[in-house]
Amino acid sequence: MSYAAFKLLHGPTGIENCAAGFLTPTSASSGTDGSPGGPLPNLIVTAGNVLEIYAVRTLDEKTGGDKGLMDGISAARLELVCHHRLHGNIESMAVLSGGSENSSGNRRDSVVLAFRDAKITVVEFDESTHRLRTSSMHCFEGPDWQYLKRGRESFPRGPIVKADPQGRCAGVLIYGLQLVMLKSAQAGHGLVGDEENQNAAGILSVRVESSYIISLRELEINHVKDFIFVHGYIEPVLVVLHEKEPTWAGRLPWKNHTCMLSALSISTTLKQHPMIWSASNLPHDAYKLLAVPAPLGGVLAVCANAIYYHSQSTSCSIALNSFSSQPDGSLEMPKSNFSVELDAANATWLSNNVALFSTKTGDLLLLTLVNDGRGVQRLDLTKASTSVLTSGMTTLGNSFFFLASRLGDSILVQYCSGASNSTMQKNDEVGDMNGESPLAKRLRRMPSDPLLDVTSGEELSLFTTTQSSSDSSQSSFSFVVRDSLINIGPIKDFSYGLRINADPNAAGLAKQSNYELVCCSGHGKNGALSVLQQSIRPELITEVELAGCKGIWTVYHKNSRSHATDASKAISEDEEYHSYLIISLENRTMVLETADDLGEVTETVDYFVHGSTIAAGNLFGRRRVVQIFARGARILDGSYMTQELIFSQQISDLVPSSEPPAAAFVSIADPYVLLRMTDGAIHLLVGDPSNCTVSLTTPPVFSVNSTDPISACTLYHDKGPHPWLRTTSTDAWLSTGITEPIDSNDLLTNSSDVYCIVSYESGKLEIFDVPGFKLVYSVGNFISGKTYLSDTCKSNIGKEETGHGLKVVEVAMHRWPGRYSRPYLFAVLSDGTLLCYRAYFYEATDSSKGDMSADASSDVSMVGHGNRLRNLRFVRLQVDSGIREEENSDSIVHRPRISAFNNVGGYQGFFLNGSRPAWIMACRERLRMHPQFCDGTIVAFTVLHNVNCNHGFICVTSQGFLKICQLPAPFNYDNYWPTQKIPLHGTPHQVTYHAERNLFPTIISVPVVRQLSQVLTSLADQESGQQMDVAINPDDMQKTYTIEEFEVRVLKPEKAGSQWETKATIPMQNFEHALTVRMVTLHNTTTKENETLMVVGTAYVQGEDVPGRGRVLLFSFASNSEPSQNLVSEIFSRELKGAVSAVASLQGHLLIASGPKITLNKWTGSELMGVAFYDAPLHVVSLNIVKNFVLFGDIHKSIFFLNWKEQGAQLSMLAKDFGSLDCYATEFLIDGSTLSLVVSDAQKNIQIFYYAPKTMESWKGQKLLSRAEFHAGAHITKFLRLQMLGGLGPTAEKTNRFALLFSTLDGSVGCVAPLDEFTFKRLQLLQKKLVDMAPHVCGLNPRAFRQFRSDGRAHRPGPDSLLDFELLSHYEMLSLEEQIEIAEQIKSTRSQILCNLSDLTVGTSFL
């Protein structure tokens, strides 16, 4: 029996829902941040089971940006507030508004989320924990609510949520016909009057008080299509769009206008809902309602070919194309100036009478409601511009809207009405918007360049929409793209190929980073190939052998003379080149000049070179260099020493001792240097900026003979014009407003914001201010890794030691430059655990202070003058487990593992060296972790910026190589994995990899608009035998029709380039769709040699009257030696009955699935000869082969397991699954000698089957037995079998154990990996514990989410022997005490569990 685990490696990125609401404390109090229209709401987006909240950050014209100015804003970007992975897919979402629009300064909204089948959760943002908190849960599932389903089992769509615009109630449509009304509580009434829920300003989030159900069937409302709450009524009014009696395409001439609107006035107190008005005779294809904002009121009903406006008093409409029709006897509809189809459109309001529509082709349209003061007169539609294909839109404030997309990158756009001259001039420079900008500009814009579509400007053609001046009623708008969120979904297919800069000699884990995934993602004009790499492989500039290196540093040198010249002022601090590189070896130090080339100057400089260096850095605004060695320190001006300190002389005056102490750890924060000696003493070098000298002091706080030795310490400089930590002290509001910028001319402030962070062996963490060393913050038991840290206000915590043998070996705190950035706190524990915390501000009110520390009030007066950082809190962030490594604690000198960088290739973050090095980048205020496996252990790291290496870095490997590198430029690192997108301007369908030539043949389809006459003649040509006897109106022949044209494009990655080169294009015939392309190895029976060929399977799509046909095409590639013109040449083609949907090679034969038949063919070199066949039930979706076994999945009839016997030349069925299943993808799972069959289906499940002919229940071997079943929560489109690594480090061996890498339609990538029995049993017990122990966001149950969904079909539940790694990863985020307690309960140890989790992470690091 084999066991497996399900693990998501790359989270979902395709955004399905978006909304805007004031969730977090808004920036209403600060005048500096406000966009012209007051505070900006948060953006809430959902992708699959991920919920994210963003804040929109704007830069005004003073700070300068690189894009056109608009409304005084020069740039804007999205910044992450919080991110949650839920145990359930979010079906729909609405924001429950916390008050009227005008009081938006202090309004607080809640979010209503709906999950299948009928779960509703209301969440709000909790300032004290900086996360979402569930305020109420409503579930209408289970036996008590069975009657709501009215006997139905499957429902085509999940629940739909809509909220009243004034926040009085929300409605959720469940099971198609039941409407749940959620009544929101009035502030201070009902359940909500509890004091502890009050925020700092006494603002309450809106809560839900009660709920009840309205059965729409009793109101004679059936077939509900959409519903919405409208504006402008005293009580909430709900308008329902429903179909009185259904119709279908064959009945449309007789029965077309079947939809109607019903408006219900909702009284939540009386639970009554009388109908107040209705409108009938809407077209059958009406599908969406939009509530028109006050003062106009009413609703827009959107149909495929028309838009209708209805309110209680007036109605009007507009026809969009020639297919719209009126009911008999009604007036002629006004037509729009151009023809457009509005099915599958999304819309949002830009102002109270202008709506922005996004069509299914990605065009943006503006709909203006023209009114005369009494009511809406008519509707006007104009084209605005083009953009991505959207899945949702929302307006943010008065000047931004967000286009969410499942098929392309989602973008944030700024708009303004009535284009001013300055805007128009800026916006005409479309080239600047789409082209590459210089690096400094790109930095300010954030590394994710919104317009990935560099060449064509198709993502959002930016032009100002100016209408003709004769029609004064229409308003004009101009748009600028400000930011984008990358999306790699929907992934239809992927292939696994070598990177361009792969290292052929790599082995073990390093070899894995030779590979990359090339995915078919996107659709239509957003179609692209996404290149994904899990680990970073830097671009090598140069490499030197250098043995025994202990550390490297680069330092700047500012010449005092150059201050007078203006040239140096032009160079920003970021662009200044480094001057010296200092390399510390075993017993000497090398110094190199980092000018044009690295030249050694060790002999000519006054650096200490006769021993190893502990640290080096800049002091006094980069005018001096400080170098610390074991026994002393030197201050240098360039290459000349200006001062030398020997520690033993200085310290012996202060503390007489026999053994002269040496420096063990150094932290530099201009103008201070913190030293930790080998005997544990702490000293501080204080710099004097006036004469650039330092003096040694010993802080009295740290006495050597204290009972609690110090385990790690560091300095933190709160740099920048807006010191952040200072605002969290108790009296900050007296001196400055919390968000007001502190006057940056005051130079004294700049040096005083230095703090010393100290952690003790007992696990306590304290923060002191420097140089006074007053205790301003202390956390007891920091080592346990609690989710939140807050100031405990106790000066002497006499706790017993709770470290469980762990201690903090390194601590670091860093804040990257930026107007809104906040500090991060990092700590490395002795067992290799990395703790990451992010600081946030929370001002506890007096009532809620008690729970944080019982004796806080009595202690405050004792501790100091109230300048504790009392409002500082930290929230823990999750980082991946694959970077754990045990520390060797025997050496006294701890080599630091954390190196922060402010600019490497335009990114900021920190690098973690060690045996599993990793980059942790801070993008949008969130940490993105990317490992770097390719060089093995890295012992030292530093940044380098000079002429030849622009914003690069240097790393030293444990094998003794010093490498100067840069980050690969075309990749975007603001994603779960580094990603490069290659735009194709068409839909990619399948991709395969030709290893010998490093080519990627890809099936691409491009939509082409043709006249109907052309389409029909080409159909007639192919139907040469049949007569076209359809009488068609000659006017209709001029109408256009969109058809997809298919081709196979052979793409080759270029050397370190951005775009890929098209080497060959193979066009398909008219109406021929290419369905599959694969590289196969066939045995040529004439020459007795194996040939590698490309096979393409196609189908002719000509409507239901024509029997299906397809072709199979074989192509050969020219070998490298031949200088032939054609890279690809067709060597065989044959037409078959039925569509050729899958091909594979089976022991040198070609297996072809054409329609419902599978044929096995041998290849003679010029002809395919049939050898054997098997009749499939309906249509083969996928084929997989291991040795002589064949697995295929049918579109409705589940999977079949076949065997090929050479003797009798027959394909015979071994077993099949007798259930009905709509297969998506299939593959074999190999664990040692065990073979299992894996299938994913249309209900987003994974099932694992096995073949056991000897057992009873397999019906003498005919039936495949279920080994595991699991709900993946996403449609899995492809499995790929890859060999797993066993063991760790360079000794890692390949094992006979294969994991399945899979891709999904929402942009996530994951794996199903086999496990041994002991590991599985241990982790399964842990998983059951975590269901109860770990807190789950939105109150969702992980076990319920992972249960097999059969959607009403008969299904026998199988065993659940598939582990859920999404749940197991919560274990690392628990506190140390909880981890140890759970481990004891399941009779295991913490280190054993963490080792199992980390082994699987490393074993499945395939990229």
TrEMBL record:
One of its GO terms (molecular function) is RNA binding. It comes from Rhynchospora tenuis. Belongs to the CPSF1 family. CPSF plays a key role in pre-mRNA 3'-end formation, recognizing the AAUAAA signal sequence and interacting with poly(A)polymerase and other factors to bring about cleavage and poly(A) addition. This subunit is involved in the RNA recognition step of the polyadenylation reaction. Residues 538-967 form the RSE1/DDB1/CPSF1 second beta-propeller domain. The keyword Ribonucleoprotein does not apply. Its main location: nucleus. This is Cleavage and polyadenylation specificity factor 160 kDa subunit. It is found in: Nucleus.
